[in-house]
Each structure stands twice: as C-alpha cells, then as structure tokens.
UniProtKB/TrEMBL annotation:
Domain of life where this protein originates: Bacteria
Organism (species): Roseivirga spongicola
UniProt name for this protein: ABC transporter ATP-binding protein
A single GO molecular function term of this UniProt record: ATP binding
Ranges where the ABC transporter domain occurs: 3-204
Pfam families linked: ABC_tran
InterPro entries linked to this entry: AAA+_ATPase (IPR003593), ABC_transporter-like_ATP-bd (IPR003439), ABC_transporter-like_CS (IPR017871), ABC_Transporter_VariousFunc (IPR051782), P-loop_NTPase (IPR027417)
Entry keyword set: ATP-binding, Nucleotide-binding, Transport
Signal sequence bounds: none
Length: 206
C-alpha cells in the first residue's frame, strides 16, 4: 500500500491549519507525525482517511501498483483516535459481531482470540459503557492491530493506558509494522520511537 500527498492544505474558516504538505507513505515503513499543539496532526490523519476534505492539494492511494479511488479507501484502513466513539449500549461480544461484519479479522484469529489478545476475555458480556477508559482504548487499538486492513492510523495511541497498557501497546504494534502502512500521530516518544521515518508539521503562521 502507498499513500502519496501532494501540496496538501486544510483550513477551518479562514485559518490555515497546515499547508503545502507533500510526502508519501508505504507499507513496512512506519512513520510518526509530530508537531506542536494546534499544528494539525490529528486533522492531517482525518484528511488522509477522508473523514474531512482538504482545501487544496491531492491524495492518491495505490495497492500493488493499482490506484484506489478515494471513495473506496475506507475499505482499506482502520483508525484509533481519542475522539472515536464506540457503541456503548452493546456488550463487547455484540460490538465485535457487528464490527467484523464490515471488517475482517486477521486470518487464524477468532473473536475469542481477539478478546484474549486485548485482555478483555472476561468482559465479553459487559456493556462497553461500563468499561474503563483504558479498556476502551485497548479495544480501539485491537480493532486496528488484528484486522486484515492494509492501513493503520493511530492518533495518540496510549491515551488513557496505564503502564501495563503501554507495554501491551508497544509489544502489539510491533506485530503489524511489516504488514501494514502504519502512521502514528503523537508527541510522546514511547508511542513512536520505533518508527523508521517522521513527518513534522510546523504550526502554521499566515
């Protein structure tokens, strides 16, 4: 998988968040996206995956040399962000049954395997509204790590994780670095110090 960004810019109202970004990302070369508060790291990820449109520039996606249309890119990525909402009325088992009707688990992994991998096996029948913030974060990350999607977008991935959770994250993310295109938006080095490349987004000054 490859994503190419050419002269990308995003503004809200009349204020530019970032502008003139040109770069490329590819599978097997995990990349960190850093920048000060308000520089647009999270916004950049949202633009990349099509959650919000850019104001200028272009993004192209390709897999094995074949172009992917922007409206079809949703099929190829998973994203974990602090603002991502889960369906809290569902039990964990209900949520996973629903989610994996649209996404595919990695081959050889069952839903029971998944709950064990994210250390939630004892919580399958608990409503997600009753999960701690750390449990919810492990669930979000697990949906990215253990799917067949080609792209993994992580925004501040250890938010709400305790020491155990951070250690789990660092070990788990290592298992996908060669198989997925991984982008990590963060200023916390322990979240991305294994990345092979970095894009720094400067705070935009008009």
């Amino acid at each position: 998988m490859q994503i190419t960004v050419n002269d990308l810019g995003k503004k809200f109202n009349r204020e530019w968040i970032f502008r003139h970004l040109s770069t490329s990302f590819e599978t097997g070369i995990p990349c960190s996206i850093t920048g000060g508060n308000g520089s647009g790291k999270s916004t950049f990820l949202q633009v990349l995956c099509g959650f919000i449109p850019s104001n200028e520039g272009s993004i192209s996606y390709s897999l094995d040399g074949k172009e992917i249309q922007q409206e079809d890119f949703y099929q190829y990525f998973d994203i974990s962000t602090p603002y991502l909402e889960l369906i809290e009325e569902f039990t964990l088992h209900e949520f996973l049954d629903f989610h994996f009707k649209f996404k595919k688990l990695k081959q050889g992994i069952s839903i029971d395997d998944f709950t064990a991998l994210v250390h939630l096996a004892k919580d399958k029948n608990k409503q997600i509204r009753n999960f701690s913030s750390g449990m919810k974060q492990r669930l979000k990350l697990g949906l990215c790590f253990y799917s067949q999607s080609k792209v993994c977008l992580l925004d501040e991935p250890t938010t709400n994780l305790d020491e155990f959770g951070i250690d789990w994250y660092r070990k788990s993310v290592q298992t996908i670095l060669n198989d997925k295109l991984v982008l990590i938006s963060s200023n916390q080095k322990h979240e991305f110090d294994f990345c092979a490349s970095n894009i720094h987004i400067p705070t935009f000054k008009s």
